[in-house]
Structures are given as C-alpha cells and as structure tokens.
Amino acid sequence: MNILVVEDDKLLTDLIVRRLAKEKLEVRVAVDVEEGLKAIEEKSPNLILLDLILPGVDGFSFLSQLRKNPKTNSTPIIILSNISNKEEIERAMSLGATDFLIKADFSLGGIADKIRGVLLKK
Amino acid sequence: MIDKNKKQNIEKPKLEIVLVTAHQLKTPLSALKWIFKMFLEGDAGSLTPEQLDLIKKGDEANEGMIVLVNDLLNAGRLEKKKPLYDFQRHNFPDLIKSVTSENSVAIKRKEINIEFKLLPKEIWLVCDASTVKMLLSNLIGNAIHYSSDGGKIAISVKEVGNFAEFSVADGGIGIPKCQQKEIFSKFFRGDNVLRLQKTGSGLGLYVAKKIVKDHGGKIWFESEENKGSKFYFTLPLKRK
Prior knowledge:
By secondary structure, chain A is of the alpha/beta class.
C-alpha cells in the first residue's frame, strides 16, 4: 500500500514517514500541490494524507481538484491539519475528505490506526 | 484618554496576533506530542524507568501547552464581534455523555468516580453543539483537574421552567472566598491553584460564561476552599 503525504513541515513529515514505515506502508512526501500532482501522475496512491495550509495553492483547493480528477476521485483523503474550527472541518468534509484529524489531538500511533481503518474499509 | 473606537481599533489587530501566534504554536506542539508518544508507545525501543518518568513529565507539560493554546484560540474566536453559532435542536444528556466519554482518559488516570445524580434520557434544547460541548468540557474538565486522585464528581441535569439546568460538583481544592468574585474574568487563576502549580490558562471559565451568555442562560457556583466546588448553568430550551 502506498501513501502520499502532502505536508510542508519537514519535522512533521520526517516523523510521519518514520512511524508509517513501521506499518510496512510505502510513504512518499510532497511539500506542495505541484509536487503532489507529480507524485500522483507517477503512481496512484492508495491513500492521501493532506495538510490544509500549504505554500501556494491551499489544501482545500487541492482537495476539490483531486475529487474532480478521475485518477483520485475515489482515493481516500484524510485531512491532517491543526485547523480546528467547525466551519473549516465541515468545508473539507463537504469537499469530499474521508476523515479529518487534528494533528495536536492524535499520536502518530492513533493516526496510523485511522489510516489502517480506512484502507481496510476500501 | 483613548476613545472607545480607537481602543477597538487597537484591540482588533492584537486579537488577530494572538490567534495567529496560538495557531502557529500548534505545529511544534504537535511534533513534540508525536515524539513523546512515540517514546511512550515503545516505537523508539524500551526505556529505563527514569527515562520513562522524564518522558511522561515532558508529555504532560506539552499536553498542558496544547490545552492553553486551544483555550486561547477558543477565547479569541468567541471574542470576535459575531461568533458563528449554529443553533440546532440537540438532546442535552447526549452532549453531556459525549463530553464525559471524551474525558475518559483523565477520569481513568485519576481514578475519579463520576456519578450521574440526575440524567434524564431526553432534554431537547436549541443550541450550538460544539460550543456547548466546549462549555461542558471546561466545567467537567476543571472538576477532574482540581479533584484529588480517587475523588468523586456528581453531574446532574434537569428541566426548570423553560430552561435546562446543569450542575457538576467536585470535592476538590475549591476557590478561596476572597477571589470568588473574579473567577469568570480573563486569565484568572486562584492563589491555591498557583501554589499547587496546577496547569491551566485561566480562560476556561471566561469562555464558559461567554458561551452561556450568548445562548441566553445563566452561570453560577458555590465553593469552599479545600471542600470543593459546584458549578451550575442554565440554557434555554427554545430560542426566542
């Protein structure tokens, strides 16, 4: 299973990659939308872990773009963000996010459990 | 003398700075949380009892910072001229049960005994569920935080006229009599709380009062130092 992490914070991506490698998941990282699209073109991910605040195009626009793209319209997309107000969570869910996780509320073990749960359902 | 409009013009950017800074702090705090938890969950190999104790202390301090930053963000959002409330019909006891279950880790850790003295199956009210859950979480969270290990907390909810009345009582450290007038003000911390070095932002009760007021209810309390506190609030069943 391969996961695409779209996140611009290097420390966070290092930790995510380190922890998800223990789950025997192949993890690729994109720091912005451009890199994300390139990574999807190269290989379709089984799941996308997406931050919302990104340099350039934000995560909301990317999410909406991914849902219109036949290659990713049914790919599970879990939002991993520290945005925690209800309106933004509802906006992401209405744009087609599979789940919304607030970074500061979860351990990486908890995030790995959520990913596994979504992949098993698929 | 600064006139009111000028003061508001100064206050607004100040609030934005606080909100942006608080939000920025969440990224490094999340990273620290992930690192501490990786150690505690054994992802980095086994630890000596001393290392484990130090990591646990670091994790607790970091969790305290996350609570503080969340309190700042919540207070900041509610300070905005028109906070966005989404008033819908909700079953109040379900909101209470959901908040209690969200606090189950702390309840278990402190071996707190929660007693639902009066909890009818249904009391429907029109409210903004997310802020009412925040209000319940602040009051129930305080009762847990300021109780001793093995303490007892009693929760009760009933209908009184056109209102739902909630109360939560603890046998914790209480509030010194001379400071009771100030407890709903921003950044208030009791002297006894400071002496015991309990973590907290001093914003929880301020936020609680704001939410109750915006819903058209009332909040009050009874407290005796070293014996405990009982907080009450009412929320209208219907919106006018």
